[in-house]
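User: Second chain of the day. Same drill as before.
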Amino acid sequence: MIRENLHNIWNELPSGVKLVAVSKFHPLSSILEAYGEGQRRFGENRPQEFAAKAVQLPQDIEWHFIGHLQTNKLKLVLPYASLVESVDSLHLLEAIESWAAANDRIIRVLLEVHIGAEETKQGFTTEEILHVIADSIGNLYPHIVVCGLMGMASHTDDEERIREDFAGIKALFDECRARFPQLTEFTELSIGMSDDWRLALDYGATIVRIGTAIFGSR
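Assistant: Same format as last time:
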């Protein structure tokens, strides 16, 4: 099943769009099955599970952390994460900078965009993201590389609502790129999950995060 699901998705993904196989709650055997087919990017959202898997699985895996990250869990995530997709507050950004400075590391991150219709979600407002990027250009976070934006559409079956959300995130991404052209590594737009990744492609997704459609229900 995993093999067939992976190949079906790969066949639909445009060239250059990265697939993150969301392996949270799935066993090592499932990850290794996907790895055996050639999948190298995996996403986790719980620090303890993430750290345990990272040390047991092949070291050429590119791990993305995609969940809410508490500052007291950084030591479980930052040593292994190729990209932290879910930086959702200034407090977290500052804590990552402190950890990275102390450990002589450069940490690649995406800034999570808050969708107004979803009051329970974490994330930055448009204004906050523009301020953070300006600060990063001003070398306020010398150990962090802001690589782009991440967002989740509202949890709804209304396709128009989902499209509006993706369009809003894409517009902010384009504004950031236009306003701050010196950010040469600001290239990633991580939108789209198992239920809506095909829609996300219409709005310039460079990363899609797919779990259930690969591994099945947990």
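The chain has one domain: 2-215.

User: Great, on to the next one.
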